[in-house]
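Each lists sequence, tokenised fold; shown next:
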Amino acid sequence: MPKMKSHTGMGKRVRLTGRGKVVSQQAGMRHNLEKKSSTRTRRLAGTVEVAKADLKRIKKLLGR
């Protein structure tokens, strides 16, 4: 039986922390930044933990 391959695209979008949490960049920082307030862009700048609803699917794609 061949080995499971991890989804390379998902690997570029999320990363696992040391404790096994899945973190990713927040959405909304790609374009139209002039319209968005400075407060909003600062808030979107960091990484956040992925929603619980998406965890099962993401971990499967990462081969975990």
The CA atoms of residues 39 and 45 lie 10 Å apart. The helical segments are 8-13, 38-44, 52-61.
